């Protein structure tokens, strides 16, 4: 049995420098993934949004979500993804790339699981499960 740790996930991941390095590699990977860019709406946005700003916002968000002192200043997940019509299959491709990068950086299993739980909480705002007209307004 492992000793329970009181350190936040942010601290266990190594803080902002380590998180920014993982986000850097992850965004480089997803932005050129042909399976994600097969969605023309995602492809268009991936070529319009400057990578550096995207990495900045995702780093802020991961730092905040893991218990760091940063505050996320970007749009809500629903507002920044609704127009992309992301499918469950595309979400799975995204998750596979995430896992590959966490493995590449040798993030331990426990921290990977906690990250996947956090990422999973946003799925409902990002993945379009039904026609937009069927979604509740507001
Ligand atoms: C947990 C999962 C995800 C997180 C945390 C996340 C995070 C973000 C953030 C922080 C932004 C910028 C918001 C802003 O501009 O203020 C964004 C935009 C974007 N995301 Fe995600 N994202 C996730 C999943 C996905 C997936 C699965 C895809 C593609 C398949 C995707 C593609 C994009 C694209 C293309 C944009 C730019 C949209 C635009 O400006 O038109 N994201 N995301």
From TrEMBL:
Keyword Heme included in the entry's annotation: yes
Keyword annotations of the record: Heme, Iron, Metal-binding, Transport
InterPro entries named in the record: Globin-like_sf, Globin/Proto, Hemoglobin_trunc
Pfam families: Bac_globin (PF01152)
Coiled coil: none
ATP-binding recorded as keyword: no
Protein name from the UniProt record: Group 1 truncated hemoglobin
The organism of origin for this protein: Hyalangium rubrum
